[in-house]
Specification:
Elements (H helix, E strand, L loop, with lengths): L22 H11 L1 H4 L1 H18 L1 H4 L1 H26 L7 H12 L2 H9 L3 H23 L5 H20 L4 E2 L3 H7 L2 E2 L2 E2 H18 L2 H11 L1 H6 L4 H27 L1 E2 L7 H11 L11 H20 L4 H27 L2
Antiparallel strand pairs: 1-4, 2-3
Length: 348
């Protein structure tokens, strides 16, 4: 007896159409392989950290003030990470971002710069930091794109040079920021939300629009995915690569201004290990280290995961060594979750 003899017939005597095999599974797979689906692993990791924080320290973690503390701590490295997302998506890497933050903070807080700011406006300090960051990014971009040098080597050299120049300018001393206008503006709040957090949100929003809704973003994906194909398609790959590093340099300059306002001091030690934190946040956020795919939303989640982890450890009075081990575990778990969801999404 065949299966057809058991089929239910429609009122008109014809057999009804069978539902497509595995259609529900395919829809779930498509969801998991989408950008939103790839972020689910990060959301789960962040939620787990929040549950641990609430379970271990209760209201001290869940209070509004602590949430603002987490976001304020995420703002500086978050701005750098958004810029790093563009460079890595474009097939590059930058190891000098921490040193550029230190150099920009020192240069913008020298006595000469602060005197000009006192005579004119504190915007002089902001402009100086942005120009220093953009200038260093331009040097990186030109050497990589037109000098055809490896990004790893160029930015490693810039990291050493920028840190050394910052020490020479400051004579290895801390330079106190006396311009109250700068501190009051960047250290203030709007409706209870710190200005630093608002800046991070605006940078993340602008980065998302630039990467996902503009020709510049599409060209960045093309350059990172296949530079030769991008060149044949009419994209000036060398110029675009240079612009990406200038963009990241501007992000470092802005981060330097933010750290000046937060600490009221410029020093060559600012930005220590920022390059590692930024690269880790970008990579676990879902941006391919080889280039060609980037996500600003994932980067924001990556930053929040690391900062929340640090906050939980501080509130529980745990040592930094254990914290570093936990950070490594978070990276592995987040990447494994992403790979798991991606493989489920690709399964027919």
């Amino acid at each position: 007896m065949t299966a057809q003899t058991h089929a239910q017939q429609a009122p008109d005597g014809t057999a009804p159409e069978a539902p497509p095999s595995g259609s529900g599974r395919n829809r779930i797979g498509a969801l998991l392989s989408s950008p939103a689906g790839r972020n689910l692993g990060l959301v789960v990791a962040l939620l787990v950290l929040c549950v641990i924080g609430l379970a271990t320290v209760g209201d001290r973690f869940g209070s509004f003030d602590n949430m603002m503390t987490i976001l304020r701590a995420a703002s500086i490295i978050g701005v750098i990470s958004v810029g790093m997302t563009f460079v890595i998506t474009g097939g590059g890497i930058d190891l000098s971002v921490g040193a550029l933050v230190g150099l920009a903070s020192v240069w913008a807080s020298t006595l000469a710069t602060q005197q000009m700011a006192a005579d004119f406006h504190w915007i002089v300090i902001v402009t100086t930091a942005l120009l220093v960051g953009a200038g260093a990014g331009l040097v990186n971009g030109l050497l990589i794109a037109y000098g055809k040098m490896a990004p790893f080597i160029v930015t490693l050299a810039m990291m050493a040079a920028a840190r050394g120049l910052a020490e020479l300018i400051s004579d290895k001393k801390t330079q106190v920021v006396t311009e109250r206008g700068l501190i009051d503006f960047f250290g203030g709040k709007v409706l209870g939300v710190p200005v630093l957090v608002i800046i991070f949100a605006l940078v993340a929003l602008g980065g998302w629009v630039l990467l996902n809704r503009t020709t510049f973003g599409r060209r960045t994906l093309a350059v990172g995915g296949n530079p030769e194909a991008a060149r044949l398609a009419g994209i000036d790959v060398r110029r675009h690569t240079t612009i990406l590093y200038v963009l990241l340099g501007l992000a470092c300059g802005l981060a330097a201004v933010m750290i000046l306002a937060r600490t009221t001091a410029g020093t060559s030690t600012h930005g220590g290990l920022y390059e590692l934190d930024a690269i880790a946040a970008v990579v676990i956020g879902g941006t391919l280290l080889s280039g060609g795919r980037g996500t600003v939303v994932g980067t924001v989640f990556g930053v929040l995961i690391f900062v929340t982890l640090t906050n939980v450890f501080v509130l529980n009075n745990l040592d930094t060594s254990t914290q570093m081990v936990a950070k490594g575990a978070i990276i592995v778990v987040a990447v494994l979750l992403q790979q798991r969801m991606a493989s489920r999404g690709s399964t027919p």
